[in-house]
């Protein structure tokens, strides 16, 4: 009886912990959703319950976001920049990570750590020299500048991430493939990459997330509203002086975060396996 009671207590504690973490994770989305449909008078009245609709819900904030700003254009720019950055990151990080994991001997690990350290350099120290590069290539006020700049911090991190994952793939599989006639590149394409889908997916999610949430470079290099991404367009166009359009701001944040949250939840198992794959070598 006591053992059954202890199991029930333990299970109840587990469920309560999960419920607490779930509430903690879902609270920002719930707060944004409530704010999106609140009227301005209801939102700014400090005597009203912030979690209830004291006045009838409204679609005015959504109309402001989609009708009076270039939000759909910002979404398209963000998706375009993110897709290009992911492609460039994969093309550079896959061969770099594989070379450091397989071909480099003792110095490969140290060199990989050095590459990762470049990711830790703050953007506030780099945007001035990068601005010279962007100016020399005549890419000012164009989102192509972001496609040029963002790989400078996605490639080092993803290279370091792929190093650990490639080390977890048994070298004997590649050696067997090369005995059967594959070249080193053929073994990489036929053996290593199919096994490394979880790691590649992790790199894709990380690179895409890092590129769409970046703010400093996007604010520095892009001025025209039509060329902005969501991370810059929403706060700069919906904060006018001391006037904050909170409903439209929350609507923009909610619409921009839902696809990323859905992507994380859809590939959560592969994402976690990709993060932990290199921890056992």
From TrEMBL:
GO terms for biological process: transmembrane transport. It comes from Candidatus Segetimicrobium genomatis. The chain crosses the membrane at residues 12-34, 74-99, 111-131, 143-166, 187-210, 243-267. The keyword Acetylation does not apply. This is Carbohydrate ABC transporter permease. Residues 75-267 form the ABC transmembrane type-1 domain. Its main location: membrane. It is found in: Cell membrane. InterPro entries: BP-dep_ABC_trans_perm (IPR050901), MetI-like (IPR000515), MetI-like_sf (IPR035906). Belongs to the binding-protein-dependent transport system permease family. The keyword Phosphoprotein does not apply. It comes from the Bacteria.
